[in-house]
Amino acid sequence: MGMTSWRRSSRSGTSGQSNCVEVGRLSGDIVIRDSKNPAGFRFRLSADDFRRLAADIRRGTYDAP
To answer: Cα 20–63–35 angle (5° rounding)?
Structure first.
């Protein structure tokens, strides 16, 4: 399976601002990129690792003190 289309959060807004991340699927994994630099560096995670990362983010694990 190849790369699917990129998606971004509906909370990102539509005012032309692109300060968000986009996610896509590649061969069963999740790929994350910066919408301001779509050709730049990408993170590739297994689906399980992505679920854990998303849960940690929702819990505030990585929030600045």
So the answer is: 10
- Residue 23 falls within a domain, yes or no? yes
Between CA 10 and CA 13 the distance in angstroms is: 6
As for how many domains the chain has, the answer is: 1
pLDDT of residue 33: 92
- Whether residue 35 contacts residue 20, with contact meaning beta carbons closer than 8 Å, is answered with yes
Residue 65 within any structural domain of the chain: no
| Residue 2 maps to a domain | no
Apex CA 30: angle with CA 52 and CA 39, to 5°?
Answer: 130
Per-residue pLDDT of the chain (65 residues; tens, 9 = 90+): 567 789 987 777 666 666 788 999 999 999 999 888 888 999 999 999 999 999 999 999 999 98
